[in-house]
Design goal:
The protein has about 350 residues and is an alpha/beta fold. The model has no long low-confidence stretch (mean pLDDT about 95).
Amino acid sequence: MTKLKNDTFLRALLRQPVEYTPIWVMRQAGRYLSEYNQTRARAGNFLALCKNPDFATEVTMQPLARFSLDAAILFSDILTIPDAMGLGLYFSEGEGPRFERPLREEKEIRDLTVPDPDTHLRYVMDAVSQIRKTLDNQVPLIGFSGSPFTLACYMVEGRGSSDFRQIKTMLYQRPDLLHHILDINAQAVTTYLNAQIESGAQAVMIFDTWGGALSHSAYPEFSLRYMQQILAGLKREYNGARIPSVVFTKGGGLWLEQIANSGCDAIGLDWTIDIGEARRRVGDKVALQGNLDPSVLFASAEVITAEVEKILASYGDGNGHVFNLGHGISQFTPPESVATLVDAVHAISRKYHE
């Protein structure tokens, strides 16, 4: 096993000593970069970009060429699994993802099957392998998936939603059907993430984007339970290396202690919770990732630096922190703001690791 030139990110996730707080940015390969937009134009559309390993590798590498980030993340989409299940994923310009065949009928739900990642999602595995090779052990590669509940939201609603009326009606009226979808999704995500690990991913992340839309009692039953099922089935080691896992529930501050007991190595935090308070609540059980408000990046360099200092000071001395935004970066972000952010985290954080 060849050693990584920079393994700070992996060590931080495992709460091992580091010299500085590592940083990567959710959605770091994206529309805020002019080179990404050029590659996307060459690909023709977003799905074509995702499904071509050469293009996916190219855009994954673009932010690393600009910024001294401590990790790369696979360029893909959380909806690859339901697309492989035959729901007909497509993207409308300016309207986000949609499915041609959302799950509404009981027969369709009962007929759902787990896709074979080596067959139906081969393009993702090829991209992981190619990206890992291109990285040449400079920094680690993160693989990812949507959570079972977040995938189910799109699968049942057929698109993004403001009120989740369809899926919440199913949750309260036919919980048996929703549990069936979630169980199939959990099996699919486990298989999918393990295939990414076998293809070269060195850490994995579960994006539970819509878990925070659930009630206090529904979250453990309909979201966290199925992420625990995935975590229990993940490869924790591969080729002699430990593979850390991160769970990110947007709006998940209510359930930090329960997430910390789920079997993950780290919890991703959105910007609505103080990271020092989160650290006090979870103790030494897991690492924390986060949690700058992405809108800070529209401010001046001085403000960005001050906000970075606030988060680092709140977390305090010691290890177990990966700096990140509290959600994905906005397409309107000036790239120079990201450079300011990365440099500030690297410079300021060193005093907390002495």
